[in-house]
Design brief:
Elements: E1 60-65, E2 71-76, E3 82-89, H1 103-110, H2 123-129, E4 134-139, E5 144-151, H3 155-163, H4 173-189, H5 194-205, H6 231-242, E6 248-254, H7 258-269, E7 311-315, E8 323-330, H8 341-349, H9 357-363, E9 367-378, E10 381-390, H10 392-396, H11 398-415, H12 419-434, H13 441-451, H14 472-480, E11 488-492, E12 501-502, E13 509-514, H15 517-524, E14 557-558, E15 566-571, E16 579-587, H16 594-620, E17 623-630, E18 633-641, H17 645-657, H18 663-679, H19 685-691, H20 693-698, H21 703-711, H22 717-725, E19 730-737, H23 741-755, E20 776-780, E21 788-795, H24 801-825, E22 831-836, E23 844-851, H25 856-875, H26 879-893, H27 900-912, H28 920-929, H29 933-944, E24 949-954
Parallel strand pairs: 2-6, 7-11, 15-19, 20-24
Antiparallel strand pairs: 1-2, 3-5, 3-6, 4-5, 7-13, 8-10, 8-11, 9-10, 12-13, 14-15, 16-18, 16-19, 17-18, 21-23, 21-24, 22-23
Helix pairs in contact: 1-4, 1-6, 8-14, 16-17, 16-18, 16-21, 16-22, 17-23, 18-21, 24-25, 24-26, 24-28, 24-29, 25-29, 26-28
């Protein structure tokens, strides 16, 4: 598949594309006839450049460059419920001073801990959380990005606080000392993360003069106060040098008109200091076209290595996994954004159609998947990567895999650079942009603030989707980098032996093997007649019928049918979309044991694998499907452009109904599933703790149980299981968006016929949930990690909307202060949180901490002490504060869906909760509105008392006499929640 491999937390302003469908070939690729897929803005928008946008985009845009050099994109959306902002700063780990590795990352942490006008650490987080919002940040190689969203009416107040990050942060000495521990905790959290370990091994190969060779995260060692060299002055100097307005790109989205937003942004951000040195950063505000040749690139600005390429790294992972990666370093290709050779080659090499490399490797039992794409692109060079997920047999025959890989590259180089392929890819992107749907404001501004550094302002929206200049020479020159003499090969596999190197910080064992001259010449001429490049896409839509737009919101209706089943249909009149969703949720009593659940997972994996070659092209054309196991059966889901949905569904149903089992596929997929289940024991401790929650509370099958059953399964078991799976099954259907009622009925009919489902039955959507005894319960697990993790789950006494509303209020009141107290003040660990943990209709609340320094018992004490002390804050809460919390919670509950998939998710949520009138959120909102402080506090006291329904799950043995909770209690009907009819 086409994929973008990201080694750091976020890559430098690169958009990950999901390809949808295309227009007819007659429209061409260039600007001629372009209005069919993009449009310009109106003169009333003003600004320094007009911003090109999708025809479906009803927002207004204005681009500005402030006098201090700060680039700003303002977005006015009168219909948004949430407002958002994101600031991208062109500085990252590449700018870390020598000896201060991780300083850019540390600085990102420190900006959240107080400013001149808002000095209290945690005040910003508290304000955002109490007004229905979220916030975060990341540091990458050359960028640091800060972003938030908030209830629209509180946007200006939030933006005021946010702006001070970039004008006058406090860098309070006390928090400088404390926050180093948070960075250390983050570092230690991922000491056993194979991706971090692999990245360190890669970094150790890089020339020490190149910034890729440095340690980017930081820890107590690199951020220590040394003799005559404390870290705080270095932090201040780094901020002063790099946090300059010319390095910043700001994007804001809110309800206000553009003129109002401009007044606000000039008032708040004109005080951001300009760079002390002119020309400190490259500006994207030029509108210059890309150079059409790669001949003038500076060949020295690229990743260089201590040893000459090619050679192979062999790394021993902690998880049972096998990956073969081939990395091709090169100079930056950023100037070729109109040509996008990296995208073209990722699209070409990542193909999964019949005759592709991955299709042939799967047939031979050597691999399970392949990805190709740009790994990173920076001012210090770029890298393209092909990664193959190997089987154990693939590791044994890695020489053959590499032979076929380089034959695939040679074939693509010789036959793949064709104008029609470029045109097809261009049209796929054009159609995606033409029918672009709204996403969350926070995600939208975050991506745009990064993109604004890389595209001319007028192209910041359209640029990532634009392929306008096919250039044979640029494509060929890019392909010249994808040759064996420029390859760094990396094998990550447990079978690696004789590892004679250990990486410095993450202790990854590895070995270096050199590629012989004979092998290199063989690869340069490698050929494989079984391989073939993808044909034209057969799933391209011929028409794009749209749903209604701008109409009133409606609810699904149950269609009359002769199938004796329920078919919910949503006729969209809001989004004007060509997309739709069809979902068949099939209940089958066969899946009442963990053995049969394991067989179902294997069966669905085999069906997906059989469909892979054909449906890859459907995915590129904007059609997708999913097959999934739910607690009471299996599900079939098809979504995307409606024109060809029925065709894809027919192919999926055919694969589900067939029973052609191949021994080689069975063995490969069974071993892959088993490995994945076993590898869950290598997850972070906090993730392993959460993984125990479902089995304990719902009687779900945990990963190790599923793996144990799969170990005993043989190919002979599959036909018999398949014969029983749907025989007594019955389906409930949901369809919506641009799918008509007639289409929905026909698709439901074909599903029941193809799978021979029963024509009568009932769908039980809710899950069985253990009603915890009114006393503390415990469960413990052993983990292979030095950190300790604790989860406290508090269960509601009733499965009612009133109980759910009260617990939601408790969560929004506690979430931000719990985080600030446990992580920032007490420095217990990097992974800290409080969140709702509802199980279907049963409300619940969870508190979790993973700590590298404290024992599980100490963590429990801290959580208990916090819960007891917090009651006084609720008692002292003013009426205005209570109303503020209600408003924040209501803002989240009542936020309107942005697109058809979000709308469908709301409908499915109501159905899962037994609210067939689709008014679940309205009812919950009414309960929240009527909640008074007295009942709020009373509920809190009841839930945190000693005899409340509480479950502790820890990574160490319990240090008390409490009996552990036992999932066998679920067998007692009196111990489970009885849902009202």
């Amino acid at each position: 598949m086409t994929h973008l491999w990201v080694f750091c937390r976020a890559m430098t302003a690169t958009v990950v594309f999901i390809f949808f469908s295309a227009l007819s070939y007659g429209s061409g690729v260039t600007e001629q006839g372009a209005e069919s897929w993009w449009r310009g803005g109106s003169a009333e928008e003003g600004g320094d450049h007009g911003v090109k946008r999708s025809p479906s985009d009803d927002r207004a845009y204005r681009y500005l460059r402030l006098d201090n050099g700060l680039q700003v994109l303002l977005i006015s959306d009168p219909n948004t419920d949430k407002s958002a902002a994101s600031m991208n700063v062109n500085v990252g780990s590449f700018q870390n001073p020598e000896g201060r590795e991780g300083l850019a990352h540390f600085l990102e942490h420190m900006l959240f801990l107080g400013t001149d006008k808002y000095p209290e650490a945690g005040a910003y987080q508290k304000f955002i959380g109490e007004h229905g919002g979220q916030h975060n940040a990341y540091t990458s190689m050359e960028d640091t990005n800060y972003f938030f969203d908030v209830e629209a009416k509180h946007f200006l107040a939030a933006l005021n606080r946010f702006s001070r990050f970039f004008i006058a942060p406090s860098f309070d000495k006390a928090y400088v000392d404390r926050e180093r521990n948070a960075v250390e905790s983050e570092f230690r959290l991922k000491l056993k993360d194979d991706s971090r370990r692999g990245w360190e091994v890669f970094s150790e190969q890089v020339d020490p003069e190149h910034p890729l060779s440095t340690f980017s995260v930081g820890n107590l060692e690199t951020l220590a106060d040394r003799e005559n060299d404390p870290v705080r002055p270095d932090l201040l100097a780094f901020y002063k040098q790099y946090y300059a307005a010319e390095r910043m790109t700001l994007v804001m989205l809110s309800r206000e008109r553009l003129g109002q937003l401009e007044v606000v942004v000039r008032g708040l951000f004109s005080a951001v200091p300009a760079a002390t040195e002119p020309g400190a950063t490259k500006s994207a505000d030029t509108g210059s076209a890309a150079d059409s040749s790669m001949e003038n690139e500076d060949k020295s600005i690229r990743p260089s290595f201590k040893k000459s390429l090619p050679y192979q790294l062999n790394i021993v992972p902690l998880k049972d996994q096998r990956k073969l990666s081939i990395t091709f370093p090169m100079a930056t290709i950023e100037d070729h954004w109109r040509i996008k050779p990296d995208m073209f080659w990722g699209h070409l090499l990542g193909d999964e159609s019949e005759g592709s490399l991955i299709a042939e490797l799967k047939k031979a039992g050597l691999a399970n998947g392949l990805s190709a794409g740009q790994a990173f692109d920076t001012s210090h060079g770029a890298s393209f990567m092909v990664q193959i997920a190997l089987t154990p047999e693939g590791v044994e025959q890695q020489t053959l895999v590499l032979d076929r890989l380089f034959a695939w590259l040679n074939l693509a180089r010789n036959e793949g650079i064709r104008p029609w392929r470029f045109k097809e890819l261009a049209l796929l992107l054009q159609t995606q942009f033409r029918f672009a749907e709204k996403i969350s404001p926070s995600s939208y501004v975050q991506g745009l603030s990064s993109a604004l550094r890389h595209y001319p302002p007028e192209e910041v929206l359209r640029g990532p989707y634009l392929l306008s200049d096919f250039d044979q020479r640029v494509m060929a020159e890019f392909a010249d980098h994808l040759k064996p003499e420029n390859a760094l090969i990396t094998l990550l596999a447990p079978e690696v032996e004789a590892a004679d190197h250990i990486s410095a910080r993450y202790a990854a064992p590895y070995r270096i093997d050199y590629v012989g001259e004979w092998r290199l010449k063989h690869w340069q001429k490698a050929a494989d007649t079984s391989l073939s490049l993808a044909p034209t896409n057969p799933y391209l839509a011929k028409a794009y019928p749209l749903s209604g737009k701008g109409g009133e919101s409606s609810v699904p209706v149950a269609l009359k049918n002769q199938l004796d089943t329920t078919i919910w249909h949503y006729d969209d009149q809001q989004f004007g979309t060509p997309r739709g969703l069809f979902d068949a949720r099939i209940a089958t009593p066969v899946l009442n044991t963990c053995r049969n659940a394991a067989l179902a997972e294997l069966y669905l994996a085999m069906v997906r694998d059989a469909l892979g070659e054909e449906t890859y092209q459907a995915g590129l054309a904007g059609l997708s499907y999913s097959l999934y196991r739910w607690h009471n059966g299996v599900g079939v889901n098809v979504s995307g452009y409606t024109d060809r949905q029925a065709v894809l569904l027919s192919r999926v149903l055919q694969a589900l109904a067939e029973s052609q089992w191949q021994e080689s596929d069975f063995a490969r997929l069974r071993s892959t599933l088993i490995r994945n289940y076993r590898n869950s024991l290598k997850q972070w401790p906090v993730r392993q703790v959460f993984a125990q929650f479902g089995p304990l509370m719902k009687g779900a099958c945990d990963d190790q149980t599923l793996a144990n059953h799969l170990e005993a399964v043989s190919l002979e078991d599959m036909p018999a299981f398949h014969g029983r799976l749907f025989k007594t099954g019955h389906a409930r259907f949901y369809a919506g968006g641009a799918l008509s009622a007639e289409q929905s009925l026909a698709m439901a009919r074909s599903t029941m016929k193809a799978l021979a489902l029963g024509e009568a039955g009932d769908i039980v959507l809710h899950e069985t949930v253990l009603a915890l005894p009114e006393q503390v319960q415990r469960h413990s697990i052993e983990v292979d990690h030095n950190d300790k993790a604790v989860l406290l789950y508090i269960q509601g006494d009733e499965d009612t909307l009133g109980e759910r509303a009260a617990m939601a209020m408790i969560n929004i009141a506690m979430e931000a202060p719990f985080y600030t107290t446990m992580r920032t003040e007490k420095q217990l660990g990097y992974v800290v949180g409080a969140n709702l943990m509802h199980i279907n209709r049963v409300p619940g609340l969870g508190f979790y901490i993973q700590s590298p320094t404290s024992s599980a018992a100490q963590i429990e004490q801290e959580i208990n002490a916090y819960l007891l002390a917090f009651e006084s804050k609720l008692v002292a809460m003013s009426k205005a504060e209570l109303q503020g919390l209600k408003a924040a919670l209501l803002a989240n509950i009542q936020e309107r869906p942005k697109n058809i998939m979000q709308q469908a998710a709301r409908h499915q949520e109501s159905l899962m909760l037994g609210e067939d009138d689709f008014k679940f959120r309205d009812k919950l909102a009414e309960k929240i509105k009527t909640l008074d402080q007295e009942s709020f506090v009373a509920t809190y006291r009841r839930l945190v008392s000693e005899d409340s329904r509480r479950l502790w799950i820890t990574t160490t043995a319990p240090e008390s006499d409490f009996a552990p909770v036992n999932a066998e209690l679920l067998a007692d009907e009196e111990r489970v929640f009885a849902y009202p009819e």
